[in-house]
Design goal:
Helices cover about 35% and strands about 20% of the residues. It has 25 helices and 31 strands. The strands form 8 sheets. It has a 7-stranded parallel beta sheet with strand order 14-15-13-16-17-12-18, sandwiched between helices. The structure holds adenosine-5'-diphosphate and zinc ion (ZN). The site of adenosine-5'-diphosphate (ADP) has 15 residues, from helix 12.
Length: about 750
């Protein structure tokens, strides 16, 4: 009798692969365990046992497995069920999902490292030849399994490796070693020999002929008059120094250096705060959500910005905790800020775990294990979309905050999934409840609520005394015509910034993310050419001087003048945040400005540092992209300025108006989070655009009705479904023919459906 297992490999393969196992192995193995298997040319991979059976494959002779890596399954049947749904629904290989789901450290078989244990000396004479060779080589360096294979010239080296491990001579590291090491920081100080003024002056004398060295020393003394240690990174902020120069000074024992591990304990305990009692309106929403859950899996909480949705979430979470259930709190990546995590921690303390893409492998494995074992530390998991793949044990509730956010959708690599929709399936499979929360729900979700598919609860007043901000649209056409512009600022916005800073309040200036499709916009009338088929803006393609529809391919030549008012100068460029930052610096004496965009927030906690500087008042003007619009809760923002709303309004996407409304409302929501008045100023060449009106009047309902009507007219979701197919290839003609064929094929098939 023959025994086989099917194994999912972390590769984008359409199918699981079959391997031969012995009867004993077959008895021992369970679905969801990891095994090391050969695949391709001498490569080892970690795969997951997916099926056990007795049918030999037809197409190939199965190989046998190399090693069993787990005692118990690490993937539960429930997780597999979720993967299978995702694989079918999003047309993604199980292997791609495996790779997205498992922390990398679980997967690296070929990459597995072997290291010698320095605390135990092997019995050299008792070693076999092969073992001797390996141990000898390990004296010098750690080895990868592949290197060991080459060394002993044998394929099946795992028995040997496991034998050595059993004798405690070596340890097997499941991933590249350096990935486990916490980050080291380099610190410098002036060498203790020079810690007196006299010695220091003498030193400067000696360095007279070395201007670079004395400049560095001088900067150091000014920054650290008490001769303290200083981070190299901090030093580099003050003075531009080369590594070679620092090396020289260290070698000459003028500077002293040391390395220290950076604290990676993100969730340092913070003091608990007593729960805030819910307001009447919040209490009502809380009960309404619960009663709707009795009948529905999903409830949509539509709560205006600053209404205290988060407090309602907290009460719902508290209830699940009492029932010993796990809660998954999903946020868009950029909303996953220290501010948010700390709020959750202040309420729930050690029960909170964060799962973050910026985490190291080590941290991710730890989180995974805590959740799998239903540890007390992992009852509330806060994370971005990939947290959906964690091994939940007893999931009671998923909260999808800011459910309208596009970043819930993963574009590349596969699996290309929408985390909000996938969360709903996960909740259903795990018999948990799901709450969607937003101030500006996506049309799809709101439509589902209206259709009765989801429950629907509204929270339409701001918490406490907070007044909604006054929203003003500023006409850039007019400002340009009357020469009332200073740089990028209309006089109105300019004066308001000045006045706000003078009142010692803070200003947020928003500019749309760079790299958006270039539009052609008339500076006189604000007209942007549209596609007549698809109702979206045309984008400018410089290479062939055309305007093009991204949906249907409709093109026209670049117009020489505006098609509506015939003005000759058409504008193509967008403005970057950097330019705004510079102008703020030039124009406003009182400004202490900082910029927040993808460039300035790349480091691990760079984002949080900026937020903190703004919260402390160290920065009083924050210039930023999309990032500044998300969930930040500042009390002292008196003015929010939108430099130019048009790129949002005319973004070539059928959801452009919905997105523009959402974004502008979110930006505006950063103001008026305290008692007192606040303003939002939106600059635009189309200040009378319906969407701007709807934002001004905070009229989600009108946006919803109108957009839904357009979606129906132009056959867009939620009335129709869209799939985008992209074909790629080296040869133009082949791709062209294939695309034509595929297009016709689809049309034929669809014709049958209609
Ligand atoms: P949202 O998530 O709806 O934008 P938040 O939950 O951030 O609103 O609440 C806005 C502000 O009001 C926060 O500073 C929050 O601490 C405060 N707040 C909300 N509800 C309460 C409450 N019940 N008691 C005290 N403060 C509250
Ligand atoms: Zn079109």
């Amino acid at each position: 009798m023959q025994y086989f297992i099917d194994v999912v490999l972390p590769l984008p393969l359409p199918k699981a692969f079959t391997y031969w196992v012995s009867e004993e192995e077959f008895e021992f193995l369970q679905i969801g365990q990891r095994v090391g298997v050969p695949f391709g040319k001498n490569k080892l991979y970690t795969g997951i046992v997916y099926k056990k059976h007795r049918t030999a494959p037809q197409a190939y002779t199965p190989k046998s497995i190399e090693v069993i890596l787990d005692e118990l399954p690490i993937i539960s049947p429930a997780q597999f069920a979720f993967w299978e749904w995702m694989s079918t629904y999003y047309q993604a290989a199980l292997g791609s999902i495996l790779r997205a789901a498992l922390p990398g450290a679980f997967l690296l078989a070929s990459e597995t490292f072997v290291a010698r244990r320095l605390d135990i000396d092997p019995d050299w004479d008792g070693l076999t030849d092969d073992a001797f060779l390996v141990m000898e080589a390990l004296e010098k360096a750690d080895l990868r399994l592949e290197e060991i294979q080459q060394l002993v010239q044998r394929k099946k080296i795992l028995p040997l490796v496991h034998e050595l491990a059993a004798q405690n001579y070596i340890q097997i590291l499941q991933s590249l070693r350096e990935k486990y090491l916490p980050k080291q920081q380099r610190y410098l100080r002036i060498h203790p020999d020079f810690h007196t003024e006299k010695a220091l002056n003498l030193l400067f004398e000696q360095l007279k002929k070395a201007p670079k060295q004395s400049a560095l020393l001088l900067a150091f003394c000014q920054a650290q008059p008490e001769y303290d240690w200083m981070k190299l990174s901090a030093l580099r902020k003050i003075i531009d120094v080369s590594s070679a120069l620092i090396r020289t000074l260290c070698d000459k024992q003028i500077l002293e250096e040391k390395y220290e591990y950076e604290d990676r304990n993100l969730l340092a305990p913070i003091p608990l705060k007593p729960p805030k009692p819910l307001s009447k309106a919040q209490e009502k929403a809380f009960h309404a959500i619960q009663s709707q859950w009795k009948e529905k899996l999903v409830v949509l909480l539509e709560g205006v910005t600053s209404s205290g949705k988060t407090e309602v979430y907290f009460s719902l979470i508290a209830e699940q905790i009492e029932k010993q259930k796990q809660v998954l709190y999903l946020l868009p990546e950029i909303s996953l800020t220290a501010q948010m995590v700390q709020r959750l921690q202040a309420r729930f303390g050690e029960k909170v775990t964060i799962f973050h893409s910026k985490f190291s492998l080590h941290e991710r494995v730890e989180v995974w294990k805590n959740i799998q074992h239903h540890s007390d530390k992992a009852q509330i998991i806060i994370g971005a979309r990939s947290a959906l793949f964690l091994p939940f044990k007893n999931l009671g509730l998923i909260i999808v905050d800011e459910e309208h956010e596009t970043s819930y959708k993963q574009f590349d690599p596969a699996p290309r999934y929408h985390a909000r929709d996938a969360a709903i399936v996960l909740a259903q499979q795990m018999q948990a409840k799901l709450l969607l929360g937003s101030a500006t729900p996506s049309l799809e979700s709101r439509f589902n609520a209206e259709q009765g598919k989801y429950g629907h609860v509204q929270l339409l007043e701001r918490f406490g005394q907070a007044l909604p901000p006054k929203i003003i649209a500023i006409d850039l056409k007019e400002a340009h015509r009357k020469k009332q512009m200073k740089g990028l600022f209309s006089h109105a916005l300019y004066h308001e910034i000045e006045a706000t800073l003078a009142r010692e309040q803070q200003v947020i200036l928003f500019q749309n993310r760079r790299g958006y499709a270039p539009l052609v916009e008339c500076h006189s009338c604000g007209h942007v050419p549209q596609c007549s088929n698809c109702d979206v803006s045309l984008t400018y393609h410089q290479a062939n001087q055309q305007l093009r529809c991204h949906y249907c391919g409709y093109t026209i030549a670049k117009p020489v003048q505006c098609m509506v008012c015939s003005t000759p100068n058409l504008n193509f460029k967008g403005t970057g945040t950097q330019q705004i930052e510079e102008q703020v610096n030039d124009f406003f004496d009182l400004a202490r400005v900082a910029r927040m965009d993808w460039d300035t927030t790349r480091g691990k906690w760079a984002f949080d540092v900026l937020i903190d500087r703004f919260a402390q008042g160290e920065v009083n003007v924050l210039v930023g992209t999309q990032m500044i619009t998300k969930g930040l809760d500042f009390k002292n923002v008196g003015l929010v300025g939108v430099i130019n709303a048009d790129a949002l309004l005319f973004f070539p996407d059928f959801r452009a108006h919905e997105k523009a409304f959402q974004l502008l409302t979110q930006v505006a929501g950063r103001a008026g989070r305290y008692q007192g008045e606040s303003k939002v100023m939106i600059q635009s060449f189309s200040p009378d655009h319906t969407v701007i009106k709807q934002v001004k009047e905070n009229d989600y309902q009108s946006l919803y009705t109108q957009q839904l009507h357009e979606r129906k007219t132009f056959e867009y979701p939620p009335y129709n479904r869209l799939i985008r197919l992209t074909l790629r290839g080296r040869d133009y003609t082949t791709v062209d023919q294939a695309a034509t064929w595929l297009g016709e094929y689809c049309i034929d098939k669809l014709a049958l459906l209609y």
